[in-house]
Design goal:
It is built from 11 helices and 10 strands. By secondary structure, it is α/β, with parallel strands linked by helices. β2, α2 and β3 form a beta-alpha-beta unit.
């Protein structure tokens, strides 16, 4: 006998309204309450599929105060579907607070598979190996950006960023890690979807006039060359008459290494 669930975590389309599963539509029609970030946004989807279920707002500003309300619904025997404005709840969207509290009460919970910007992006971007690190939205400060990209310089690092900040963020990354290879996606699943792969400079040049839409970005890992190998190459270039600053530019470009790291090693080896 199929288990009866009290809370359903339901992904919704990230752009194209057709990107919703038959099961998701069925669940949204059958539950008693739909908890959503913005009732106006969710209502557009519900209207498209003739779903008349009652909506209740649930967003990052009222997460805690809504817990008792949803607990009371469940105690009354009602079922709830949790959705976000777009994509999968709890992936850079509210839901973790509610989920934690309901699990404490032994509430039966399930999550439906469905749309998510990260997997949509990763599935159409070439990379070596299966591992990647997703950090949600990248920090907003330059120092925060520098730390996270340095700490993950040998990984495929994926993050979200707002269109009005992405070019400045890329400039900060370039000054930290050099003109590395990246992949950038915007407007995924929508009419003007684009995926661009290249150096940061090439991406900046392509979008220099304007960039719109939701952004997903991946930094390709550095070559992971160790200090001994770098020092050997530094010594070779020094023997040819190159200075530390010139060497840092050459090796950081050839091996996707942090220019400051190369420069420091070049100075120390003098």
């Amino acid at each position: 006998m199929a288990r009866e669930f009290q809370l359903y975590i339901v992904p919704t389309p990230i752009g194209n309204l057709k990107d919703i599963t038959l099961r998701a539509v069925e669940v949204l029609k059958s539950v008693d309450i739909i908890a959503c970030e913005d009732t106006r946004t969710t209502q557009k989807l519900l209207n498209h599929y003739d779903i008349t279920t009652k909506c209740c707002s649930y967003h990052k500003y009222n997460e805690k105060e809504r817990i008792n309300l949803f607990k009371s619904y469940i105690n009354e025997g009602k079922t709830i579907a949790l959705v976000s404005d777009a994509g999968t709840p709890l992936i850079c969207d509210p839901g973790a607070v509610l989920l934690e509290e309901l699990l404490k009460d032994g509430v039966a919970i399930t999550a439906l598979p469905g749309a998510c910007a990260v997997t949509t992006f990763v599935s159409q971007v070439p990379r070596e190996g299966e591992e990647f690190t997703f950090i949600g939205f990248i920090p907003r400060t330059a120092e925060g950006i520098k730390k996270v990209v340095t700490d993950n310089m040998n990984k495929h690092l994926i993050f979200y960023e707002a269109p009005e900040r992405i070019l400045k963020t890329l400039e900060t990354i370039k000054t930290t890690r050099g003109d590395i290879k990246i992949a950038l996606g915007r407007e995924l699943s929508k009419l003007f979807e684009e995926i661009k792969i290249g150096t940061i400079s090439k991406i900046q040049e392509y979008f220099k006039d304007e960039i719109r839409g939701e952004i997903v970005c991946m930094l390709y890992p550095s070559s992971n060359i160790n200090d001994d190998e770098l020092i050997n190459r530094i010594k070779i270039l020094k023997s040819k008459g190159f200075k530390a600053k010139e060497i840092s530019v050459i090796l950081s470009s050839l091996f996707d290494e942090n220019k400051n790291r190369v420069y420091d090693l070049a100075v120390k080896s003098e």
